[in-house]
Amino acid sequence: MNKFRRLCALFLAVAVTFGGASVAAAPAEAAAAATRVVNFTAPTSVYKSQSFTLKGTVQRKAGSKWASYAKPKVEIYFDPAGAAKAYKVKTVAGNTKGQFSTKVRTSRSGLWWAKVAPTSKQKSVVSYKKSVRVKQRTSVVPAGTTCPSWAPIKGNESSGIYHVPGGAFYNRTNPEICFATTSAAQKAGYRASKR
After folding, report:
1. pLDDT by residue for the chain (195 residues), tens digit each?
2. What distance in Å separates the CA atoms of residue 123 and residue 113, rounded to the nearest whole number?
3. Sequence-distant contacts of 85-91: CB under 8 A, at least 24 apart
């Protein structure tokens, strides 16, 4: 019986010691607040290597409501269509209302999204992914009297004729429009010069 009492006393001492330690422990830190990205926008299509704007607003959970997340750090990611892997393009800072905006450019179609960098007080979150299709330009109105290298075919609007490099009237023609290909000129209603 004495052994039993001693064992019970020992068990009780252990329970009190561990129980006291748990009661005296410091309270756990508050959990990081939830965040979200709203109104994330991107154009549906752009021309190759054209710059475009990505923007959105970051909010944080405050009780049962969502409030502005002042000056969040936002990482911009791009996932090119095809076999390439997604990668971080840049990091931008939002304003005091949580709004962020940045210009990017690409030569490939793919998905763009924003990710809020985590902090000790705020959780990380990823926005909806936006698909941006990259189109190849087929024509351009020239700034001067020459066409760019990617659109060397000169179009004359008044006559509806296009001139190719090496043609008899090519060097004398001041283009009103430049085309990337002869098929692009023909689709626009132009016909080939006879010389």
Report:
1. 555 556 555 555 544 444 444 444 444 445 788 999 999 999 999 998 889 999 999 999 999 999 999 999 999 999 998 777 999 999 999 999 999 999 999 989 999 999 998 888 889 999 999 999 999 889 999 988 899 998 999 999 989 999 999 999 999 999 999 999 999 999 999 999 987
2. 17
3. 86/111, 91/117
Task: Spell out the domains of the chain, with CATH numbers in brackets.
Answer: 35-135 (2.60.40.730), 139-192 (no CATH)
Is pTM beyond 0.70 here? no
Spatial CA neighbour of 173 closest among 147, 143, 138, 137 = 147
78/98 Cα distance (integer angstroms): 21
